[in-house]
Amino acid sequence: MSFSNFGFIPPIGKAISRINYSTPTPIQEQCIPVVLSGKDVLASAQTGTGKTAAFCLPLLNLVEKKPKHKHKRNISPDVLILSPTRELATQIEQELKRFSHFMDTNIVSVVGGVSYKLQNKLLKSNVNFLVATPGRLMDLVKQRKINLKHIDALVIDEADRMLDMGFIPDIKKIFESTSQDQQVLMFTATLNKQIEKIAQQFLKDPQRIAVEQENKSNKNIQQIAYPVADYNQKKLVLVDVLNEADLNQAIIFTATKREADRLSDELYLMNHRSKTLHGDMSQRERTRTINRFKNNEIQILVATDVAARGIDVDDITHVINFDLPRQVEDYIHRIGRTGRAERKGKAISLVIDKEKFMLQKIEKYANIKIEVIKSTHSTSDLSLVYKKKESGFKKKRRSSGSRKKNDKFTSSSKRKKHGFKADVKAKSRRRPVKKNIKPLATAS
Hints:
Blueprint: H1 10-18, H2 26-37, E1 41-44, H3 51-65, E2 79-82, H4 86-99, E3 107-110, H5 116-123, E4 129-132, H6 134-142, E5 153-156, H7 159-164, H8 168-176, E6 183-188, H9 193-202, E7 207-210, E8 221-227, H10 231-242, E9 249-253, H11 257-269, E10 274-277, H12 283-294, E11 300-303, H13 305-308, E12 316-321, H14 328-335, E13 345-351, H15 356-366, E14 371-372, H16 381-398, H17 412-417
Parallel strand pairs: 1-6, 1-7, 2-4, 2-5, 3-4, 5-6, 8-13, 8-14, 9-11, 9-12, 10-11, 12-13
């Protein structure tokens, strides 16, 4: 089957040829005809299966065929697409723009972390596609900056992630702001009782589509687990992995934002080009970090699950689970960042004893066997690794001449380390502390 079988209008067919799409993926083959028919859809499909095109292409076709609205303020968009994260919303917006390259389609995204003033300005024009995160959209609806009463289609992408992040109450309020007779498409990685219950509230007699997840057993991804004794041994194995010759770019996943910051700082001290990506960063910082990663200015991205959703970089060779995820589905999403475009990739998990049950659960769910390799390191090796790496880093910093050799106690953090009172400060950063200041305790 080819895309020509769907009967898309010429501008869409031209765009498909331009981006070298040839054969539809299973989710596209099953979903596109149903969306074109106007029916509601409940589809189970993972990231990386082509689901974005499965709803974007037919909806673009439907919107282009309908009569155009005159430009007026506060008009409803034709299509509303809800996304759990800013990054995923941005990715969907970019895909829509690629598919509508030869069309006069107005695509706007409204997400947190971006100026309200700018978004309000964009919403004053006739919007065809509005891609939004639930929180920011709710704010704009409350401010009466946007009217949802006349939308023709509503897409709820990654419904399971929406559930995990607590967005379902917001989505219900958004749904109540619509006419409630529009076409509704819901996509989810997992189909459980909770998702079924949510679907019953929004969908009317939906066509159910389930696609076997190809990336569960992606043959291009070598999956390895290293059993480790503790946190320190995790870092030792991580150092070895990052020194592998075939590593081009890597994403390291941590359980918390704090852990991501700490680990990224430690890698930076070892002269790695690393940067964090998590929800506490501003939208501007996150966008800049992702762009730098795409341009290979950053080699290692230390990220949390939510922040990394929507990252689409073909050159990622390694995905490293510094902490195993709490949900099996998140493991599938994580490793899906590598092994793309027929390239080879590695998914490496550093597993402490209490995480072994999760590893077994992942193997069962994904129907795979993860290779287990024992580490030869002991935790006592860690100090040697860090001492060697940090000494080189400190020498490099000192050679700049920015601080005199006898100035080592002039910063409050360093005086604390050496046992001095925190509130005693030198009169000048260029002069050492007076000799009569006595330490509270001997340095350990």
